[in-house]
């Protein structure tokens, strides 16, 4: 049954990362170019960024990336787009306010989604609630989505942009995550690995509001600090801690790692592939992996973990590998999105 809208005429904008239009090299190249030329992803001066992207990365990696996309592509298209559209469709059934899906890169774009909300039938929208599909804050995901939404509304001063803060420790998010994961956990496992998308260490330093806390020593994420509000590493650890407590996973049976390292710069550690090998060497035979930094299954979860990570584990001597699906369009997650859509959140125009 649909629920009533808020007193303002609100539209809900769900934003995820995006996907190529197809797994063809041409479309993958176009997508990678847009993604990597974002200064909040590859945070280098423009000319250096352009040299790396056009001169080195695209020529060397487009074909391989296209092959990976082909390995996960479905009859309905990109898994990330398919899962995101299903979640939005289910959310629309629970709300009376308009809902649109926007991708930071590719289509449907954030600008296109904003246009859809502003042209929705009925009473004119005067507020857009942005829900980034990223539980933890990072400049290369949450922040760039917010910046692009602001850009799309630059000349629409009558529209209030509201955003929900990173929800890495929100009770409803965690309950959704545990409920969706529980059937897979009940199958049994020796160890649960939390695999998060990696970011360069310098991104943490740039997000460090104190300028002197992040990665200063191995205990930085255990020492309370104002920088926790924008510390991706701390927020990833917190999600894992709270999930494990709710799901009843003992401390000695779970660990955290970071996947998708790219290039030679310093990135967060431990990295997922070496961690998988370490676990096998420590006697883990049944490994279960969850990726709570992603709300919808995508290349990084399906191919990198579900295909490549699985093979790595089995080749090293493991016996059973389980990848827990992302939240996707799980009913509990959709209800959480519906609940958030009706609450008051801070104005993001500042």
Q: What is the residue-averaged pLDDT?
A: 93
What is the N-to-C order of secondary-structure elements (H for helix, E for strand)?
A: EHHHEHEHEHEHHEHEHEH
Strand content: 5-15%
Strand order, biggest sheet?
Answer: 2-1-3-4
Number of domains: 2
Number of helices: 11
End-to-end span in angstroms?
35 Å
User: What summary fits the major beta sheet?
Assistant: 4 strands, parallel
CATH class call of the largest domain:
Alpha Beta
List low-confidence stretches.
Answer: 1-6
* CA-atom Rg in angstroms: 20 Å
Shape designation: globular
Structure overview:
With about 350 residues, this protein is an alpha/beta fold. It folds into two domains: about 10-165 and about 330-340, Rossmann fold (3-Layer(aba) Sandwich), CATH 3.40.50.1400; about 170-325, 3-Layer(aba) Sandwich (Rossmann fold). The protein has eleven helices and eight strands. The chain has helices at about 25-35, 45-70, 80-90, 110-120, 140-150, 170-185, 200-205, 230-245, 270-280, 300-315, 330-340, and strands at about 10-20, 100-105, 125-130, 160-165, 190-195, 255-260, 285-290, 320-325. Strands 2-1-3-4 form a four-stranded parallel beta sheet, sandwiched between helices. A four-stranded parallel beta sheet has the order 6-5-7-8, with helices on both faces. The longest helix is centred in the first third of the chain and has 27 residues, at about 45-70.
Strand and helix map with partners:
Elements: E1 10-18, H1 25-36, H2 46-72, H3 79-92, E2 99-105, H4 110-118, E3 127-132, H5 139-152, E4 160-163, H6 171-185, E5 191-197, H7 201-207, H8 232-247, E6 254-259, H9 272-281, E7 286-290, H10 299-315, E8 320-323, H11 331-341
Parallel strand pairs: 1-2, 1-3, 3-4, 5-6, 5-7, 7-8
């Amino acid at each position: 049954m649909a629920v009533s809208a808020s007193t303002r005429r609100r539209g809900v904008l769900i934003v995820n990362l995006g996907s190529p239009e197809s797994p063809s090299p041409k479309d993958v190249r176009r997508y990678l170019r847009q993604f990597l030329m974002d200064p909040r992803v590859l945070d280098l001066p423009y000319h250096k960024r352009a040299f790396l992207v056009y001169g080195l990365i695209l020529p060397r990696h487009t074909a391989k990336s296209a092959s990976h996309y082909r390995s996960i592509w479905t009859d309905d298209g990109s898994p990330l787009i398919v899962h995101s559209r299903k979640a939005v469709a289910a959310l629309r059934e629970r709300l009376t306010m308009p809902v649109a899906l926007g991708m930071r890169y590719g289509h449907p774009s954030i600008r296109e989604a904003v246009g859809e909300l502003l042209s929705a039938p009925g009473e004119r929208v005067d507020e857009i609630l942005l829900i980034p599909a990223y539980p933890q804050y990072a400049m290369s995901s949450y922040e760039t989505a917010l910046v692009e939404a602001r850009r799309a509304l630059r000349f629409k001063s009558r529209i209030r942009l509201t955003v929900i803060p990173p929800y890495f420790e929100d009770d409803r998010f965690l309950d959704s995550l545990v409920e969706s994961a529980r059937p897979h956990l009940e199958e049994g496992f020796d160890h649960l690995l939390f695999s998060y998308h990696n970011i360069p260490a310098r991104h943490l330093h740039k997000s460090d509001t104190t300028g002197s806390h992040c990665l200063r020593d191995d205990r930085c994420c255990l020492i309370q600090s104002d920088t926790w509000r924008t510390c991706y590493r701390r927020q990833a650890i917190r999600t894992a801690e709270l999930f494990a407590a709710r799901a009843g996973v003992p401390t000695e049976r779970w660990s955290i790692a970071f996947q998708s390292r790219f290039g030679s710069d310093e990135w967060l550690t431990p990295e997922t592939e070496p961690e998988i090998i370490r676990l096998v060497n420590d006697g883990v035979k049944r490994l279960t992996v969850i990726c709570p930094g992603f709300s919808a299954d995508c290349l990084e979860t399906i191919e990198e973990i579900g295909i490549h990570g699985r093979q790595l584990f089995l080749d090293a001597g493991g016996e059973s590998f389980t990848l827990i699906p992302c939240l996707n369009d799980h009913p509990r997650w959709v209800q959480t999105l519906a609940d958030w859509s009706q609450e008051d959140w801070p104005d993001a125009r500042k």
